[in-house]
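[User]
If only I could read backbone structure tokens as easily as an amino acid sequence. I have put the entry right below:
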Amino acid sequence: MKRQGTITSHYGVAVDVRFADGEVEMVRVKRKSGHVVGDAVEVEGEILSRLPRRTEILRMDARHGLHTVGANLDLLCIVATCEPLPPPGFIARAIVAARSAKLEPVLILNKSDLPCFAEYAALCRKNYSDSVPIFELCAERREGLEIFAAYLNANHRGIFVGPTGVGKSSILNGLVPDIDLATGEISESRKRGRHTTTVSTLHTLPGGGELIDSPGFNDFGLVDIGVDALAHFFPGFEAALEKPCHFRDCRHREEPGCSICEARAAGTVGTERYAMYLQLLAEVEGTEVNSHWREQRKRRKK
């Protein structure tokens, strides 16, 4: 008999599948099967088949490997804090990736009890408050969780992403106390977190909605983002691009009639934000060039 369910945990060579009646069954899969937490699947005996994905979000790691972060999502919850700081550009990359995948990006600033938090939160509000919802909380003290939980309850399924040590598991413990996820300390010498989540897992919130807790990662390379899409999805460019640039293929460097350049001159697009855009633009252009040459080599071999 065929039954449809959702993958709630992935262990590499097996997955947990939750069915509509609440039953959870472990099913063996190939190590590189491509299944991810959040996938809707059909199970018949020991055979598992993936159903079409409504949404998916991918990232590229530092070695240019591609990873599917999660499937059938509505929200990308980007968790950050002042200690450990996220890698440069992590938040902007995640926002672009979320928007490209038709997900709503949300920024969660955790550890509001730290001395460095106020300055960091002010900087994040300056850079991102016009682009995404921002929630400030302290998971350890259970402060700010109720407001964030109410938002999640109305927004279906989300996933936590962020570097190791920012407190993703602590936030989930506060939202769903019964799960009691392991949490870790920050290394004093390196100001970096230790991995505590090793398996992506889907959790149902008491008031409604679902959250996927994923292992921390520091790289969020963009996948399948073109030059035009980068500017369209880049946080902080929304207002400026309401006025179209003079040239349709404008890359927002120094082209005449560029709306972003005009916004820079007016001070509505800051220097640091624009510098981050240029960095991502160079990466996207490099990826496009590499893809072009790979395609050319394939054609020559034929």
Summary: The chain has three domains: 2-50, 56-213, 227-301. Residues 182-197 have pLDDT under 50 and may be disordered. Residues 132 and 145 are 18 Å apart (CA to CA).
